[in-house]
Specification:
This protein is mainly α. The protein is built from nine helices and six strands. The chain has a two-stranded antiparallel sheet with strand order 1-2. A hairpin with a 2-residue loop joins β1 and β2.
């Protein structure tokens, strides 16, 4: 790539630091962005689940299970698909545990997070497809906010560009072969915008068509993979490739096909949406409630008839 100057008048600056020392404890912007995304996503999911008639305490239990498993899954996916960064000559396997340095794979987070939600839903009688539908927009928003962590870390940016929204990257963070370029495609911003657009689209489509039985989540998978495919193609960080394509491009393509096929099957075989997402709670005194007045009178009439017809002895 040639012809791109080392300095560009209009551009997006990168944060000068991503770690602050507070009372001797390092506070990392990457972690704060992840936490902020989780909190905002949980608020959205909670509102949607309660609007469907679900109980907040059941949802909170599902989130408590899904979030830690999602973080573990995200790190596992990253380490497994970029194993060369942690294993081999000159590498330190213990670095695979340093999640604060960045490196989370969204599909690992989704996979184990969904598993955690399923385990709680099965135990508590929650309609799992409805839970997925309620969660989809919140997950998209959480992903977008979490991407701000890449901005603070000056990582996972795209090819050099002279566009006015090009991202300034400090020389220390430029990959080999790109040292002479100053601004790059802000892929974190592209995904942030894309994720927020997905969330809005899912909410509007859900309101318009009353989607259920997992259709909203299927659309989330299809929509996200479209954006992730072209954003991934812009990135220049070194990752494993197969046939000249990044591994995540193959993942996005496969999941896009599966998401579309899943949605089409649901439309054909599971129309409408669930009317009830959790078992109806039974009142504590329901079994001890007095019999209706009509039934009581009938019982008294039957008893009196039985007494009058009995023989004298």
């Amino acid at each position: 790539m040639t012809g791109i100057p080392a300095t560009v008048v209009l551009s997006i600056p990168s944060p000068s630091k991503g770690v602050w020392d507070i009372l001797g404890f390092p506070v990392r912007a990457y972690a704060l962005c992840i936490i902020a995304g989780i909190v905002v996503g949980m608020v959205i999911i909670n509102r949607r689940w309660r609007a469907r008639g679900g109980a907040a305490d059941n949802l909170e239990m599902a989130v408590v299970m899904a979030v830690p498993l999602g973080i573990v899954g995200a790190r596992l996916y990253h380490v497994l698909t970029d194993y060369q960064l942690y294993f081999g000559p000159g590498r330190h396997p213990v670095d695979a545990l340093k999640i604060w340095n960045g490196g989370l794979g969204v599909w690992g987070a989704i996979a184990l997070g969904v598993l955690g939600g399923y385990l709680v839903a099965r135990r508590r009688g929650m309609a799992f497809p409805a839970l997925l539908d309620a969660a989809a927009p919140g997950i998209a928003v959480a992903q977008g906010i979490g991407r701000l962590g890449n901005w603070f870390n000056q990582e996972l940016f795209g090819r050099p560009t002279t566009l006015p929204w090009g991202l300034q990257i400090a020389p220390a963070y430029r990959p080999p072969g790109f040292e002479q370029y100053a601004t790059f495609h802000p892929t974190f911003l592209y995904e942030l915008i894309w994720d927020l657009a997905i969330a809005v689209a899912l909410v509007l489509l859900d309101r318009r068509f009353r989607l259920g039985h997992g259709k909203v989540f299927a659309l989330y998978v299809a929509f996200y993979t479209v954006g992730r495919f072209w954003i991934e193609a812009l990135r220049i960080d070194r990752v494993n490739e197969i046939g000249g394509f990044r591994l995540n491009n193959y993942t996005s393509l496969i999941l896009f096909v599966l998401g579309c096929a899943w949605f089409a099957w649901l439309v054909r075989n599971r129309p409408g949406r669930e009317e009830q997402v959790e078992p109806r709670p039974v009142a504590a005194n329901e079994s001890d409630a007095p019999a209706p007045e009509g039934d009581a009178e009938a019982d008294e009439t039957s008893a009196s008839k039985a007494g009058s017809s009995s023989p004298d002895s």
